[in-house]
Design a protein that fits this description.
Helices cover about 55% and strands about 10% of the residues. It is an alpha+beta fold and about 475 residues long. It folds into two domains: about 190 residues, no CATH class; about 240 residues, 2-Layer Sandwich (Heat Shock Protein 90), CATH 3.30.565.10. Helix 4 runs parallel beside helix 7, helix 7 runs antiparallel to helix 9 and helix 9 packs across helix 13. The radius of gyration is 42 Å and the shape is rod-shaped. The relative contact order is 0.09.
């Protein structure tokens, strides 16, 4: 287990959060638990404070041995020397330092030095190495009882005294090593938890970044499909009105003003769409949360998701609105929608089919004004095939066509799941061909591909053999 219920996440000095576990248990253990906390001694690892602590430990250990009343001068010198060497070397060779100091420090009154050495060994070495070190330390220290004259009193007092002292020393030494192991384990757990929290913070930042990018792309597609298409139709109708024979000069000027305003609006819209589609820099060092480690996506991400971008809405255009779309485009040709009435098509798919067909018709009006257009939506297996094919632009200006009736309903009463219809050409012809391409935003076909791929479909486009253009998209009927 890496963390416990009740642990708090706190921002560290390096910006990475770490965990502080509140002290639990009896009051008598509170100080020991706090002392063993892996975060308590972080400030003592370097600097003058650690040097002072090391010197104090060495002096106390040496004073403990030198003050022992059973030690002679010669043996005390050896004991003090081994004590100092063992304590100094305990960080580089923890287990070896404890074993080497065994003869000198085995059975002193307070056992301070072996506790310090074995605590360090337990903190810095693997568990199996610590166990082997404890056994070796016990053997070497027991041998010292039989060798050094200073310890002969333990043997002379009888086997019971010897056994009890040895058992007490081994128990205290094992406890010191176990406490060091506890500190190491908690430090490793805290490091793992810091990495987990940092990883979750990175995942959350990446998820939010992806959601924002997805939302920006969705907004760019909607702006292009809704605004750009309508502005293009306004420009087409204004240009057609300007060139209509018999129109007075003031009407021509008004039509030219409308056409110029539509062109300017399209250029500004192109800049906005370019900015929306500009990729953001991926987050490199996300700010760590200090209150929770759970990954929470922004409301926009939860509302729109990663694939559908909120396309399924009650007010979204659907297949029943295709007749109105065809009439407003003013194309010459035919629209065929061959979808059974009983078929249930997911709303995101209907929305995508509508927008793709709208983009194809807009491009036909923009780049081939007056050309014959064949548009349709057909059920093939379990997919909807959306296609818009326009022929080449006519060589001469086409007859003017009346604009769509004002106030036309967006919900036609006729059944549009199996509909064919024809309309006349717009009043533009090739005379408008030099004006309309400037209305392009450069994002339409990219949006078509994104819409199709977001529904696990695909789209393709390109010129036809007769000089026209074809746009085709295949969408699964269920999103």
């Amino acid at each position: 287990m890496i963390g416990c219920v009740g642990d708090t996440v706190t921002a560290g000095t390096d910006g990475v959060p770490f965990v502080r576990t509140p002290v639990r248990g009896p009051a008598g253990w509170a100080g020991l638990t706090r002392w063993a906390s892996p975060n308590r001694w972080d400030g003592w690892r370097r600097g003058p404070a650690r040097v002072a602590l090391e010197v104090a430990v060495v002096l106390v250990c040496a004073a403990e041995v030198l003050a022992w009343e059973h030690a002679t001068v010669n043996s005390s010198f050896i004991i003090a020397s081994l004590t100092v060497l063992a304590v100094i070397a305990r960080y580089r060779w923890p287990v070896a330092a404890a074993v080497v100091a065994g003869p000198a420090l085995g059975w002193t009154a307070l056992l301070l030095t072996p506790l310090v050495l074995l605590f360090t060994a337990g903190q810095r070495e693997r568990r199996d190495v610590v166990v082997v070190g404890l056994v070796a330390w016990t053997v070497v220290s027991s041998a010292a009882l039989m060798t050094f004259q200073d310890y002969r009193y333990l043997v002379d007092d009888g086997p019971l005294r010897l056994v009890t002292d040895m058992a007490a020393a081994v128990a205290m030494s094992a406890g010191a090593a176990g406490l060091g192991r506890l500190v190491r384990t908690r430090r490793e757990q805290a490091a793992a938890l810091r990495e987990l929290v940092a990883g979750r913070a990175r995942e959350q930042a990446l998820a939010e970044h992806a959601a924002r990018a997805d939302e920006r792309a969705h907004l760019a597609r909607e702006m292009h499909d809704v605004v750009a298409s309508q502005v293009t139709l306004i420009a087409v109708q204004a240009a057609g009105l300007r060139m209509t024979p018999g129109v007075d000069e003031r009407t021509r000027q008004i039509a030219e003003t409308i056409r110029a305003a539509a062109s300017q609006t399209t250029r500004e819209l192109r800049e906005v769409l370019t900015e929306l589609r500009r990729p953001e820099a991926a987050p490199s060092a996300p700010a760590a949360s200090t209150a929770s480690t759970s990954v929470v996506l922004p409301p926009s991400a939860m509302a729109h998701g990663v694939t559908t971008q909120g396309a399924a809405r009650a007010s979204s255009p659907c297949l029943r609105a295709l007749d109105t779309l065809w009439a407003s485009a003013g194309c010459a040709g035919q629209l065929v929608v061959n979808v059974p009435d009983t078929l249930t098509v997911a709303e995101p798919v209907q929305h995508a089919a509508y927008r793709i067909l709208q983009e194809g018709l807009t491009n036909a009006v923009r780049y081939a004004p007056g050309a014959v257009v064949r548009a349709g939506i057909e059920l093939v297996a379990s997919t909807l095939v959306v296609s818009v094919v326009n022929g080449p632009a006519p060589a001469g200006p086409a007859a003017p066509a009346a604009p769509a009736a004002a106030g036309a309903s967006t919900e036609p009463e006729s059944d549009l799941h199996s509909t064919t219809g024809t309309t006349t050409a717009t009043a533009t012809g090739t005379a408008l061909a030099s004006d309309l391409p400037s209305l392009s935003t450069g994002n339409g076909l990219a949006g078509v591909r994104e819409r199709a791929e977001s529904l696990r479909g695909h789209a393709s486009w390109g010129p036809t053999d007769d000089g026209g253009y074809q746009l085709t998209a295949v969408l699964p009927i269920s999103s």
